[in-house]
Design a protein that fits this description.
Structural class: mainly alpha
Radius of gyration: 30 Å
Strand content: under 5%
Number of strands: 0
Number of helices: 5
Largest sheet: none
Length: 152
């Protein structure tokens, strides 16, 4: 009878396999293929050979699955590595395309001022009020006048 797979180990192994494969692929594209470990070179060579027979997505899926199974057993998982659960229901039924594009979001709008604060100016991000330029100029003039007075 096969042992029950550990979901924690499976999740960690799957995440690590996906991250490592993406890193290996990027390093190979940047010309650092020879510096990769032997197991990474083997996975990437198998990936490239499969590209002749199938699509890039299918080849990537198989490469990540193979790496995941190796990591699962290395991390102490017993039995066969469980198939990962889909990340979201919408992505699994094809309604939302899954891609590796990072989407930037606009910062949230500031909360409206409370009635008591409407007349007050908001503080800058540093939390300190800015010193007016006229005040700085007046202090510099006072320093020059004091220097002239004391040097006579």
């Amino acid at each position: 009878m096969a042992a029950k797979p550990s979901t924690t180990i499976a999740r960690k192994a799957r995440t690590r396999a996906e991250a490592d494969f993406a890193t290996w692929l990027m390093m190979a594209k940047l010309g650092s293929f020879d510096t990769l470990p032997d197991n990474a070179q083997k996975v990437l060579n198998d990936y490239r050979e499969r590209l002749d027979r199938m699509s890039e997505i299918e080849s990537k899926t198989i490469a990540v699955r193979e790496t995941y199974q190796a990591y699962y057993s290395d991390m102490g998982g017993t039995g066969d590595a469980p198939e990962p659960e889909p990340r979201t229901a919408a992505a699994s039924d094809g309604a939302v395309p899954v891609d590796n594009v990072v989407r930037f979001q606009k910062p949230p709008k500031p909360a409206p001022a409370r009635p008591a604060d409407r007349g007050a100016r908001p503080l800058p991000p540093g939390g300190r009020k800015p010193i007016p330029a006229l005040l700085i100029f007046a202090v510099l003039v006072a320093i020059v006048v004091a220097y002239k007075f004391l040097t006579r």
